Amino acid sequence: MKEQLKRLKQEFQTALEQAGDSKTLEELKVAYLGKKGRLSGLMAELKSIPPQDKAAAGKGINDLKQSLQAGLEAKTKAFAQAEQARALDAEWIDVTLNPADRGLGAFHPVSLIQRRLEGLFTAMGFQILDGPHIETEHYNFEALNIPAHHPARDMQDTFYFTDGHLLRTQTSTIQIRGMEYLKPPLRIIASGKVFRCERADASHDSCFHQIEGMMVDEDISVAHLIYFMKTMLTEIFEKEVKVRLRPGYFPFVEPGFELEISCLICDGKGCSVCKRVGWLELLGCGMVHPSVLRSGGIDPQRYSGFAFGVGLDRLAMMKYAISDIRELHNGGLGFMRDFTLPADLAFRR
Ligand code: FA5
Question: What sign does the CA torsion over 330, 192, 271, 346 have?
Answer without folding.
Answer: negative
